[in-house]
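Journal club prep — side note

Before the paper discussion, L.F. wants everyone to see what a predicted structure for a comparable chain looks like in token form. Sequence:
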Amino acid sequence: MTGDLQSLCKKLDLDFQNFQLLQEALTHRSAGARNNERLEFLGDAVLGFIIAHELFHRFPHVQEGELSRMRATLVNQTSLAALARQLELGNHLILGPGELKSGGFRRDSILSDALEAVMGALLEDQGIDTCRQWVLKLFESKLEALSAGRCRKDPKTRLQEFLQSRGLSLPRYEQISQRGAPHDQIFEVACHVTLLPEPGYGKDSSRKRAEQRAAAAVLENLSEQFGKAL
């Protein structure tokens, strides 16, 4: 195990002093009582602070609402899971038999939690300065891609504001189906608006994200109807 952790540290460009912390950060709750949930809690908090602090200073003239949208663009389950895949973190996860069988090392929720847990472990192992440097390096390209004034609102908000600006009724979201085992469910949601004869549909592993996908589908149809991007 130590050899695997040393290999991971090299890949992460980190030098952990306490390998037990890193091992705990990689251990899913399905593998036992000593798992990464507490470190994930800590990592979630420190990640939010580091990104908020960086955005605050990087964009001194941007207001709170847009700063919040920027942070949400950077710090979300999909974004964190993508970073975890780049780091090949899934290859080092410690999972229980059920999660191993169901491919838990590929699941966004498990990958994103593990990455946050690694951040929490790094904070405990080497302190806030080292943790901050590593997190900002990890997010460097994403931060560079952000530009003030171009961080778009999420699809549900954009759709609601578009309809409200025309005095139309708000969209109605309908859950069409919920399939799969409790730990691996897929939600399908329809989004109905009065301007379109057919709803937009979205599927995802959470109902909230399925609603966002459905709203995005409606916005795409409305963009075609009105001849402009919404």
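L.F.'s comment for the group: The chain is about 60% helix and 10% strand. Keep this in mind when we get to the figures.
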